[in-house]
C-alpha cells in the first residue's frame, strides 16, 4: 500500500493536535495511515522529525498562496488573522502551541521548528503592518495579535466559547487601525 507523504504529515498533525507531542506515538500514526511501523520509520526516523513537516504544512496552508502587498494592508491583515482564527475555532486548538508545550531541549529539532513556526507568523503579520507603521510597532502588534488568538484558543478548546476568538480578532484589527491612523497623523 502506497501512502503519500502528505497523508502521513496531515495525519500526524491531527494526532499532535489531539494528543500533543508526548501523547502521540509513531504506532498511532502507523495505524492511522495504514502502514507498518517499520515503513513509517523509513520516511521519518522518529516522531521529532515529523514536527517540521507538520508545521511547514500548516504554514503553507495559512500563507502559501498569499501575494503580499497586492492589496491594501488592512484587507490583507484582516484576511490573514480571520483565517488563523477560523482554523483555531475549527480545530479547537493550535498545533504549534500544542507542540510548544511538548518539546524541550531534549527535542531540539522540534523545538526549533516550533520557534520558526511562530516567528513566521509574526514576521508575516509584521510585514503587512509595517507598510503603514514603524517596524517596531508592527512587530509589537503582530506579537499581541498572535497572543490574543492563541489565548482565545484556550476558551474555544475548554468552553467552546467562539466569541472569545471573535473579540480577539476585533481587538487586533482595532489596535492595528489605531496605530496606522496615529502614524498617518505624524
Describe this structure in words.
The N and C termini lie far apart (63 Å). The mean pLDDT is 91. With 186 residues, the protein is mainly α. The protein contains nine helices and no strands. InterPro entries: Homeodomain-like_sf, HTH_TetR.
Largest sheet: none
What is the arithmetic mean of pLDDT? 91
Shape: elongated
Order of helices and strands: HHHHHHHHH
Strand content: under 5%
Distance between the termini: 63 Å
Task: Please identify which CATH superfamily we are dealing with.
Answer: Tetracycline Repressor, domain 2
Structural class: mainly alpha
Brief summary:
The chain is mostly helical and 186 residues long. The protein has one domain: Tetracycline Repressor, domain 2, CATH 1.10.357.10. It has helices spanning 5-23, 26-33, 37-43, 47-63, 73-91, 95-100, 108-129, 135-159, 162-185.
How does the SSE layout of this entry go?
Blueprint: H1 5-23, H2 26-33, H3 37-43, H4 47-63, H5 73-91, H6 95-100, H7 108-129, H8 135-159, H9 162-185
Which characteristics define this entry?
Tetracycline Repressor, domain 2, elongated, 9 helices, mainly alpha
Amino acid at each position: 500500500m502506497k501512502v503519500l507523504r502528505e497523508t502521513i504529515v496531515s495525519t500526524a498533525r491531527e494526532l499532535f493536535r489531539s494528543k500533543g507531542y508526548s501523547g502521540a506515538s509513531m504506532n498511532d500514526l502507523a495505524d492511522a495511515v495504514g502502514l507498518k511501523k517499520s515503513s513509517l520509520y523509513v520516511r521519518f526516523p522518529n516522531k521529532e522529525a515529523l514536527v517540521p513537516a507538520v508545521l511547514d504544512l500548516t504554514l503553507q496552508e495559512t500563507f502559501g498562496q498569499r501575494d503580499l502587498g497586492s492589496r491594501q494592508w488592512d484587507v490583507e491583515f484582516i484576511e490573514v488573522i480571520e483565517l488563523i482564527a477560523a482554523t483555531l475555532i475549527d480545530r479547537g486548538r493550535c498545533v504549534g502551541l500544542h507542540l510548544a508545550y511538548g518539546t524541550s531541549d531534549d527535542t531540539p529539532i522540534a523545538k526549533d521548528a516550533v520557534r520558526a513556526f511562530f516567528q513566521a507568523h509574526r514576521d508575516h503579520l509584521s510585514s503587512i503592518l509595517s507598510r503603514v507603521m514603524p517596524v517596531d510597532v508592527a512587530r509589537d502588534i503582530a506579537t499581541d495579535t498572535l497572543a490574543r488568538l492563541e489565548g482565545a484558543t484556550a476558551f474555544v478548546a475548554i468552553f467552546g466559547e467562539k466569541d472569545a476568538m471573535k473579540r480577539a480578532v476585533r481587538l487586533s484589527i482595532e489596535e492595528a487601525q489605531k496605530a496606522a491612523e496615529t502614524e498617518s497623523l505624524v
